[in-house]
Write a structure and sequence with these properties.
This protein is mainly alpha-helical. 57% of the residues lie in helices and 1% in strands. It is elongated.
Length: 408
């Protein structure tokens, strides 16, 4: 099966924009605007289609590590005002995507300044030009909100770019930005057209879902989602690992095994839109809060449903809170509408949620987790045969973390 990586990454970037808006107050579609600006600059600089796509995707994902960065500060209690970790984690994450071209340090140095006053002290020309391109695009959009810019303000921004050349911005990046920063370009960044503009800016990047790229993509997505909360920092990763293990247990063919693994990694993508204070609330959720939690599954479906080649994967990922008796959400599907892998991911999601520590319960061992799953199976909520299989296959791990697949 062929997968449009560029389309999937644009959907991931949409979710990241929600995170960035909630955490930093960033405006909507910020990542897409940075990607478009960088793609236009790459074209002016006569980069190849593969290089332009790699640059634009790094621009889309330049703040991919915000959730992990903020959680790491909570865990170690040390504030990092220069946000070095944010850059380091972000670069590590995109390196896992296995681009066709080199993306070394594109994100690592995207907060540097031409005069060396950035977090790593890198001066103009000492890092990759692509990092300087992302820097100027990110800086200008963050400061001036290009999607709301009025025509009479554009000359002043161009003057600022000229004035900051050699100080904040590298010369080549600044000159290239001035070449593309026209009113037609600004119009193409407005919220009502940016989705189409971004689609036209990226060249297609298609991969075979059975290749090692799947491990990099799955790990990248799971890490972003899981670090939304202290209590879920291994959730998607562990469900994906367990899904791979169970797929092998059922002797799946390589393609179905890879598809199941990716669906498990993506299943909570919509949870990026859920505020952390709700995810980590120690007490009972209000009806309104539970409604917000439930909305994450529909958001996952909305983010994935239009991506070419992702139909079955989207279905499995979006069905993980459905129940056989129709009491689940978001679609209220019943047993005949739920195929085996949808049922399997539901059971694996429950197994992980029940066994891992949460604000409202301690970590549980395998025996206690299976006992709860059996109670749900007995009243017709989940597939009892799959629960029996999980009991046999996962017992040796006794609720502990599952190792990643070989090759990942």
């Amino acid at each position: 099966m062929r997968l449009r990586m560029d389309s999937l990454i644009k959907s991931i970037a949409t979710a990241l924009d929600i995170v960035e808006g909630g955490l930093l107050g960033a405006s909507t579609n910020h990542g897409k605007r940075i990607a478009v600006l960088c793609a236009k600059m790459g074209t002016v600089l006569q980069k190849s289609p593969e290089e332009i796509t790699a640059l634009a995707i790094c621009a889309l994902l330049h703040d991919n590590a915000l959730t992990e960065y903020i959680l790491s500060e909570r865990l170690d209690g040390r504030h990092d005002p220069a946000m070095k970790k944010h850059c380091e984690f972000g670069q590590r994450n995109v390196d896992a995507l296995r681009f066709k071209t080199n993306v070394k340090d594109f994100i690592l140095y995207h907060h540097e300044r031409a005069d060396g006053s950035g977090p790593f002290g890198i001066r103009e020309g000492e890092g990759p030009l692509e990092a300087e391109i992302i820097t100027i695009a990110d800086s200008i959009d963050a400061a001036y909100h290009l999607q709301r810019l009025e025509p009479e303000k554009l000359p002043a921004i161009r003057d600022i770019v000229k004035r900051e050349t050699g100080k904040h911005y590298g010369r080549i990046a600044a000159e290239t930005m001035l070449e593309i920063l026209s009113w037609p370009t600004v119009l193409s960044l407005k919220d009502d057209v940016i989705k189409q503009t971004a689609s036209e800016a990226l060249f297609p990047w298609t991969v075979d879902v059975q290749t090692e790229t799947i491990f990099g993509l799955a790990g990248f997505v799971a890490k972003i989602i899981d670090y939304k909360s202290l209590f879920t920092r291994l959730h998607s990763t562990q469900i994906a690992n367990r899904a791979w293990f169970m797929g092998q247990h059922y002797k799946y063919e390589p393609q179905e095994l890879a598809e199941l693994y990716l669906a498990a990694s993506l299943h909570d993508l919509g949870k990026l839109a859920v505020p952390s204070e709700i995810l980590e609330k120690p007490g009972r959720l209000s009806e309104e809060e539970f409604g917000i939690i439930k909305s994450h599954v529909r958001m996952t479906w909305e983010l994935l449903s239009d991506i070419e080649g992702l139909g079955t994967i989207c279905q499995w990922a979006s069905d993980h809170h459905e129940k056989l008796d129709g009491s689940g959400y978001p679609f209220g599907k019943k047993a005949p509408e739920l195929d085996f892998n949808s049922r399997l991911l539901t059971c694996l999601d429950l197994y992980q949620a029940i066994s891992e520590e949460r604000p409202y319960h301690p970590r549980r061992n395998h025996k206690d987790t299976i006992a709860i799953l059996n109670e749900m199976a007995d009243i017709g909520k989940i597939d009892g045969d799959i629960v029996k299989d999980l009991d046999i296959a996962l017992a040796p791990f006794d609720g502990e973390d599952m190792p990643p697949p070989d090759g990942s």
